[in-house]
């Protein structure tokens, strides 16, 4: 499923910027018609609409060429012979027209501007930029059978039954309820939760463990913990409140790193673009293992994982876990690390020219603020920061 999602994302982008081949257009159309890809397509379209302020304008020749290609594709669809009874023909053709409309959207957001090209005039002085709003609650849930559910706007209620487990949405939290397994040989079913950039969410696992997920994060877990251990896989940043069960140790894995716990609260920062993985303990005891290296953490300590495991004392817990409480606490954080956080939460590209100043910050910024307010806060520290078309540029 992951490879198909990646392929759809690629085709969406090349169709949007006009660099796709004829074969890629046909492949993209087939993926648009695949019911299993509708959730991901919806996310791509919503993100593209949100980012449309940075779309390029087209002259009349370009817009006419794109329109001609889309209309000819639509005409081919209307003329296509479908091996269905005549009573269904109209319904199917309507469906194909809807698909063609979706292709039109994906070929470039802001189509109405392409069909009516904007010509320079004396009144057209500056382009008004859309404000970059903060992230929000939302996630993609991939079920055991490969179906993808968009949780952003889903209401409370049952989502699916998988084996002996039910998954529901209750008050903006994904909740699993698992019954005891009667067949010991039954293979576990796995779900994957993914928060795109600009999204956060939290889930209650089948054992009662609660996981808060930061933007651009992912966890993979069974729909029921049937074995002697409770194991999940993570990528990105999560905060875990692990349900106590001495008979079943809880294990968090990221590649070759394992965090072993019984019942505790801790934060895991395991983004691929961070210098190293960090595990910060809030309550209880955890053992962090990588290969032959390990470290036992006490509350207030942090494990820094690179080639091995190093223990850091007296960590600022409030700053580490601030994201869970809707804040950027800039106390003691470097500029590069702060910009990575901002990039994920606001889903913007950060561009640096030259070497970033090695300075520490202080203060608190609410994550509910528009990005323009965050830029002003950074500028108050003497930083040369400019926001334009969802690109945040920093100069020394």
Quick overview:
The protein has helices at 2-17, 22-32, 38-50, 60-79, 86-106, 111-115, 317-320, 335-346, 371-379, and strands at residues 136-137, 140-142, 148-150, 157-162, 165-170, 173-178, 190-195, 199-204, 210-213, 217-222, 230-241, 250-254, 257-261, 265-270, 277-283, 286-290, 293-297, 302-305, 309-312, 327-329, 349-352, 364-366, 384-388, 391-395. It has 9 helices and 24 strands.
Spatial separation of the terminal alpha carbons: 43 Å
Please give the largest β-sheet: 19 strands, mixed
- Number of helical runs? 9
Question: On the 0-100 scale, what is the average pLDDT?
Answer: 80
* Shape label: globular
Q: Which structural class matches the secondary elements?
A: alpha+beta
CATH class of the largest domain: Mainly Beta
User: What's the CATH topology name of the largest domain?
Assistant: Jelly Rolls
What is the count of structural domains?
Answer: 3
* Helix proportion range: 25-40%
Radius of gyration: 24 Å
The CATH architecture term of the largest domain is Sandwich
Strand content: 25-35%
Instruction: Report the strand count.
Output: 24
Poorly predicted residue ranges: 52-60, 62-101, 103-122
How would you characterize the overall build of this protein?
This protein has 396 residues and is α+β, with helices and mostly antiparallel strands. It folds into three domains: 2-115, no CATH class; 136-319, Jelly Rolls (Sandwich); 326-395, Phage tail protein beta-alpha-beta fold. Helix content is 28%, strand content 31%. The strands form three sheets. It has a 19-stranded mixed beta sheet that branches. A three-stranded mixed beta sheet has the order 21-24-23, with helices on one face. Strands 20-22 form a two-stranded antiparallel sheet. A hairpin with a 2-residue loop joins strand 12 and strand 13. It is globular and about 60 Å long.
């Amino acid at each position: 499923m992951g490879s198909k999602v990646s392929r759809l994302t690629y085709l969406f982008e090349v169709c949007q910027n006009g660099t796709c081949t004829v074969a890629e257009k046909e492949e993209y159309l087939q993926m648009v018609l695949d019911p299993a890809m509708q959730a991901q397509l919806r996310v791509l379209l919503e993100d593209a609409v949100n980012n449309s302020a940075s779309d390029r304008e087209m002259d009349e020749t370009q817009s006419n060429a794109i329109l001609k290609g889309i209309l000819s594709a639509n005409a081919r669809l209307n003329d296509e012979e479908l091996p269905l009874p005549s009573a269904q023909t109209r319904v199917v053709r309507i469906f194909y027209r809807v698909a063609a409309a979706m292709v039109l959207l994906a070929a470039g957001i802001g189509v109405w501007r392409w069909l009516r090209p904007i010509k320079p005039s004396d009144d057209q002085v500056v382009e008004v930029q859309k404000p970059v709003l903060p992230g929000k609650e939302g996630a993609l849930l991939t079920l055991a059978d490969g179906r993808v559910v968009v949780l952003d706007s889903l209401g409370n209620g049952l989502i699916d039954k998988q084996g002996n487990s039910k998954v529901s949405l209750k008050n903006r939290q994904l909740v699993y309820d698992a019954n005891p397994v009667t067949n010991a040989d039954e293979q576990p079913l796995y779900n994957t939760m993914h928060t795109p950039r600009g999204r956060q969410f939290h889930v209650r696992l089948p054992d009662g463990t609660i996981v808060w997920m930061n933007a651009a994060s992912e966890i993979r877990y069974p729909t029921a913990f049937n074995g002697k251990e409770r194991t999940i896989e993570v990528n990105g940043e999560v905060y875990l409140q692990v349900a106590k069960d001495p008979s079943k140790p809880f294990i968090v894995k990221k590649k070759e790193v394992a965090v072993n716990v019984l019942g505790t609260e801790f934060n895991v920062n395991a983004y691929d673009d961070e210098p190293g993985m960090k595990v910060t303990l809030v309550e209880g005891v955890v053992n962090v293992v990588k290969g032959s290296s390990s470290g036992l953490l006490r509350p207030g300590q942090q494990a820094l994982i690179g080639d091995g495991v190093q223990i850091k004392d007296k960590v600022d817990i409030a700053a580490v876990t601030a994201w869970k409480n809707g804040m950027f606490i800039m106390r003691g954080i470097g500029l590069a690390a702060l910009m990575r956080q901002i990039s994920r939460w606001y889903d913007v590209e950060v561009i640096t020219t030259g070497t970033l100043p090695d300075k520490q910050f202080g203060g608190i910024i609410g994550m509910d603020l528009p990005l323009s307010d965050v830029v002003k806060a950074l500028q108050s520290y003497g930083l040369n920061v400019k926001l334009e078309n969802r690109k945040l540029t920093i100069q020394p």
